[in-house]
Amino acid sequence: MEEGETARVKVVASLDLFADFARQVGGDRLNVSNLIPAGADPHTYEPVPSRVAKLTKADLVIVNGLRLEAALEDVIEENTPSSTPIVELSEGLPAISSDDHDGNPHLWLDVQNAIAYVERIRDALVEIDPAGAETYRANADSYLAELRTLDAEVATAIDSIPSDRRKLVTFHDAFSYLAQRYGLQVVDVVVASPGKEPSAKDVANLVDAIAAEEVPAVFKEPQFNARILELAADDAGVEVCTLYSGTLDKKVNTYVKLMRFNARELARCLG
Ligand SMILES: [Zn+2]
Question: What's the CATH fold of domain 9-154?
Answer without folding.
Answer: Rossmann fold (3.40.50)
